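Our preliminary data section would be incomplete without showing what the modeling component actually yields. Below, a chain of 256 amino acids is followed by its predicted structure, encoded as tokens that our downstream tools consume directly.
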Amino acid sequence: MTQPKMASVEIVRPDTDETQSGTHRVFTFFRDRLLSGDLKVGDRLLAERELALALGVSRPVLREALCSLAMLGLLDIQHGRGAFVRAADASVLGQALTLCLAPEPNILDDVLQARIAIECQAIRLACERASERDLQAIAGILDTLVDSLDDPEAGGGADYAFHLALVRASGSVALMKIYEAISPLLMRSHVERRRDTFREPAITSRLVDAHREVFLSLARRHPDQAEHALREHFLIGDELRRKNLISNYQPQEMKS
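Predicted structure:
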């Protein structure tokens, strides 16, 4: 049976140690060793006593920091065996990021700007890298999207899946991880927009046409056209939000 590799890396304390909390010191050590490649998925950390001494933190502080890393899905702590490096789970990180962003005002609008930046770069990469399997998957999701126009929940899910598939087709692990991390907020945004539009055939028809044009531009592998189609698609959402805002503040007699 193959034994897990013990992470035997030299630990050099930074000059600013005295200004860092113990927990921050542990996090910094873990982050830097991952970035340098000294720690890899499956590696076992030093024993708790050794690691605490090396980092200059108490064992309770180290234990608390390692538990926090485990909650983020970055460590697997096995009783009696030690702590092992895990592959990051974007869904867990996404929940943490959502909790950080949720109190911010107008967060869905702000996240949309991040989404636009990610997707516009992703679709340009996808025009170069997307496989036939990627294109078939996106086409299938587009069919589901069209068939779920009358169902805000299913339609919002299909809308999210379509855009997620675009990012996946880019072949960029970094873009995909970032996109997945904000997925709870993105899903909420998709569903809310569908609730606002599913009783308005003109808008839903435009949304379908916009998604279809995005897909066709991708399938033709025209990055400029694909990005343009995607940005035009986002403008539909902007227009809808403006209409809803105006409607909310119009005198009642003007609405009737």
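Residues 92-255 form a domain with the Four Helix Bundle (Hemerythrin (Met), subunit A) fold (CATH 1.20.120.530). The chain has a mean pLDDT of 85. Preliminary results of this kind motivate Aim 1 of the renewal.
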